[in-house]
Amino acid sequence: MSDKVAFSLEDIAKEVGGSVRGDPKRLVSGVTSPWSADASRITAVWEKKALGGLPEGVPLLAPPGWIEAGRDGVEVQNPRSALVKLLSLFCKPRSFPPGIHPSAVVHPEASVDPHVYIGPLCVVESGAHLSSGAVLEAHVFVGENAEVGEDTRVEPMVVIYRDTVIGKRCLIHGGSVIGCDGFGFESLSEGGLAKIPQIGRVVVEDDVEIGAAVTIDRATMGETLIGAGTKIDDHVHVGHNARIGRNCVLVAMTGIGGSAHLEDGVVMAAQSGVRDHARVGRDAKVAARAGVTKDIPPGRVVSGFPARDHREELKVQAILHRLPDLVRLLDDLKKQVDKLSEQVKGNGS
Question: Mind listing the pLDDT tens digit for each residue in 103-129?
Fold first, then answer.
């Protein structure tokens, strides 16, 4: 990342591994989409339909052969992947100089590395450990004996309950709650519900990103685990004792039941869910709004409720869409059968 406000097409080509078409010295001050294109910013295109209607003079990041004569740009084999590097080039990082804000409350028995930033109104309790480069932006609570790893950034209003372990280079977005009690109750013979004590913890491994307003429950016993490299979108819930593997993707409003297990590389699309104790195999994909009620083998793509093979679910949905026509057909057939029955009765008499 850099503080430069403009880059030449030559600079951009070096950054993304592409080649320049047109003027290599032309400067651009940002990145934009085809729908808001202007000549001062470069537009990334990976679908040909997006080329239609682009104003003259707009520089492009596009596949080889897509930039017409007279237009400047950078050609690259995979513009979508190159866009990640391009956006990073223009991203202005926030800096957090080490130190503790006067309004923060840090227990004297907490372990805080000298290179940690603790922002306004944060609370760090006894036995907590903050490693070098950790950032608590503002209004962050870190409970007893919790750990925040090196270069991990915690945004405002995050709650990290006691004994929770957060690894290195994680990013936790605002309003998330990690390590709260799992939802555990036992029915009493005399009626009512007894709360089951939750004495476990949450472990978040390295390079995990957790979106805004995510809740991850502590284990009843043992650990609730979020594997290294996993990315969790906003408004996701992970139940107690769940185990999320490495490099998984959990999209918004996904719910993972207690003691469920997602193996490495699983993708859970928006509003999908996994029931308690179910297992989703390595690299499986669960479509939006699908509900996993039993184990899913590795590599499968499933959809629907209950979740089944996606191709089978598509066939079911196709039949469901034909139901009104099938009902009308059955009504017509019934009328014909009734008419024939009346005729048979008349001939018999």
Answer: 999 999 999 999 999 999 999 999 999
Boundaries of every domain in the chain? 7-90, 99-310
240 given a catalytic annotation: yes
Give domain 7-90's CATH superfamily. MurE/MurF, N-terminal domain (3.40.1390.10)
What does the alpha-carbon distance between residue 240 and residue 259 come to, in Å, rounded to a whole number? Answer: 6
Q: CA-to-CA distance for 257 and 254, rounded, in angstroms?
A: 10
Q: In angstroms, what is the C-alpha Rg of the chain? A: 28
| Cα separation, 281 vs 257, whole angstroms | 16
pLDDT tens-digit map of 20-60: 999 999 999 999 999 999 999 999 999 999 998 899 899 99
Alpha helices for 93-246 (secondary structure H): none
Q: Which CATH class is domain 99-310?
A: mainly beta
Distance CA 65, CA 101 (A): 54
Residue of 139, 235, 237, 240 with catalytic role: 240
